[in-house]
Structures are given as C-alpha cells and as structure tokens.
Amino acid sequence: MSLDEDLDEARAVSGAGPGLRRARAWLSRAVEPGTIDFWRYVEDAGPVDAVRRLRSGQAPASIRSLVGARAGEDATLADLARAERCGARLLVPEDDEWPALPLQALALAVCDEPIERREQSDRTKALVPPLALWVRGPARLDELVDRSVAIVGSRASTAYGEHVAAELGHQLGERGWTVVSGGAYGIDAAAHRGALAAEAPTLAVLACGVDRPYPAAHGALFHRIAETGLLVSEWPPGCAPLRHRFLVRNRLIAALTRGTVVVEAAARSGAQATARRAQDLGRQVLVVPGPVTSAMSVGCHELLRDEELRAVLVSSAAHIIQAVGRIGDDLAPPLVGPSSPRDGLSDVALRVLDACPVRTGVSPDRLAAVAGCDVLDVLRVLPALELADLVEWTGTGWRLRPPAGKGGRGAAA
C-alpha cells in the first residue's frame, strides 16, 4: 500500500495504526529534529494531515521550505523494514510506551520560544520534543527512564574519569537505576560498561541510526546494550552521525533522566552543553570534581562555580540518588569515620588519659594534678580506661598502654 493510501486510511482510524506510524516515520526523515516551527506545525495539524499537506504542496511556504526536496520522497517502508531486520521499532507519542512525562518538560520549554524564527533559539540548542523515536532493544522506554540518571563527560577522558564513571554506572545499576549516556568514547562508554558489569540495563541516545554503530569500535558495546537495554535515536536507520546531530541529541539525554552527572568536561564540551540543557528543563545538575591541575576537569569546576546552575557536588551513587530520588526514601547514609577507643569517653576520662605518661607510671595524685581534677575522679575513671586497653598499671603507677606489637601486654607472644 502506498503512503498516501495509508494516510487516507489513518484519517478514519484512531490510535497508532499503520498509517499514523508511517506518517511519523516520514516526518522523522523529512526535517532535522529540533526545528521549532516544524514541530509546532505537526502539533497543530496532526502528523497525518501534516504529511498530506506537505506532500501535496498545501502546507505553508515557510514549512515547505524546511522540508525542501524531501517532500516528494518516501522511504518509510524501507526504514521500517530496516529497523525490523536489526530488531528495532518505531516508537510514537500515540504509543503506551512513549515516555510522556519526562518529555513534557520539552513541550513546556518550547512554548516559551518566540513566534519569529529569527528570534528563536538555535536548532542545536532548542528544547523541542521528538516527533518519534527509533528504539532498539527489548526494554520498554517508559519503564527504563522512570528511574534514570545521565552520566556524561569528555571523550578524551583520563584514567581517573573513566574509573569514576564506571564505578558510578556500576553502583547505580546495582541500586536499580538506569544509566543514560551517548555511547561515545571516554566517559560515556565507561558509564555504560559499569552498568552492564552490574547486569543492569543501560540506555544510549545516538546521533545516527540505531543500526549504525558510531564509533565503529563500539559495535560490541552497542550490541550488549541492545540485549538488555535500549539504543534510542530520532534519526531513521541508516542515518549518518553528522556533527550537528550530536548537539541536537543532548537535549534528549537531559530530558529523559532525572538528573545529569558530569564526570569530566573540558572548558568547552558537549557535556557542559548537556548540563545546561538539563538546567533549562528543571533537572538536577550533578558534578564530580577532579584535580585542579587537570584540563579535563576545568568544565566541571566551572559548573560548580556557577551560582545560577546550582550544581551539586557528588562523589558516589548514594549522593546522586539522594539528589534525584524520592524525598525521604533515597537519602545517602552519613559518612562515618573509623571508630576509636577514645570515642564516648567523658571529659574527665579524656583529661586523665591525656595526663598519663608514655613510659614511667605515675600515681593517681600526679594524674589529678596534671588533669586538673579530683583524685577521686581519677580513681573512678582509671578502671574503665584499663578495661578499654588505654592505660595499664606498671606496679609503681599508671601509664598509657603501648600499642600492640610495641612490647606491651597487647604484643603478640
């Protein structure tokens, strides 16, 4: 059946039928994602009528100019067949699986854009909802992003950054959180691998078709992600990873997650751009600090210094979950240092302990004089200090007990 016949049938049928799905597939190839005026036109006319008007030349000239020569093309059946061959599918807003709640932030943000095109945000930065998503993998997108965190960072990462990203990915995966990233070299790949090591699903948002691994060296990584998680893209199968598409997809990484963690970022980086998109969408920005001597941490420290951004410093998955999780349920445990036998001692006991000499034992009277307390107080606390292995009786007086192995009674026989 031709596209036009499917469109005619879709006008009489409600729901995500074949005609509507083909219309969305056609729209995903007709105009580059992030185009404000085009998204508004599709929202007003509906996907089916929008495609009919564009193909028949009835759409406004300003919208037809965005489509250009693609108006007469139809690769929908080939795109859908190619997706099926690689185990992918087209997800549309009319599907139950569509992550409507996370993406609602994009719909609200685009409402603030001016009507005049020259006054609108640049397409690579505009917060525009996707018209459709091509997904590859067995998981449901809405369930996968319900408890998700983005981990982004530099491609030219350091060993420190990759270690931290992998640890965070692993810890989050163990706690039932989905790690979302872009599948690139460096921090992205380390975060994905950390989650996979925890046998947890992870999600990669791509700037090309879901059947086209980029970088090519990550073919095995993308295959593993698609086995339990999802590969997601706004571009149909076969589309190339053009440079501007990486900037466009950053808004999806920010929108689909509860917060964005920046592990390493240079002074100018895509990771910083993703963090800014997250702030614009009302998402929490979290930053892992790095060495002040590292050029790969300059961007992280600048994010932390930005008072308007209100970025949160994090160093563990517990910190991240506390920042983006449920209030009162996902609190990070307080950091507790190593315990000491001196913990819990009264003020008098501490003063007597400090008054005890290291070598020669002294009398309780001498201890009372040095500690500044009564002799009876000294006699009252000495037995407790002895039971705690802090002091010992030498036969002639009291002294600090030598540490184990230093020749005292605690030394090994």
Describe this structure in words.
This protein is an alpha/beta fold. Among the domains are: 134-324, Rossmann fold (3-Layer(aba) Sandwich); 347-400, Arc Repressor Mutant, subunit A (Orthogonal Bundle), CATH 1.10.10. Helices cover 44% and strands 10% of the residues. It has helices at 3-11, 18-30, 36-45, 47-56, 61-67, 76-85, 100-110, 141-144, 159-174, 187-197, 219-228, 243-255, 270-280, 298-305, 317-324, 347-355, 364-371, 375-387; strands spanning 88-91, 133-136, 148-152, 178-181, 202-205, 230-233, 259-262, 284-287, 312-313, 391-393, 398-400. The strands form two sheets. A nine-stranded mixed beta sheet has the order 1-2-6-5-4-3-7-8-9, sandwiched between helices. It starts with a helix and ends in a 13-residue tail after the last strand.
Main attributes of the structure:
DrpA_SLOG, 413 residues, two-stranded antiparallel ribbon, DprA, disordered C terminus, Arc Repressor Mutant, subunit A, nine-stranded mixed β-sheet, Rossmann fold, 44% helix, alpha/beta, DNA processing protein
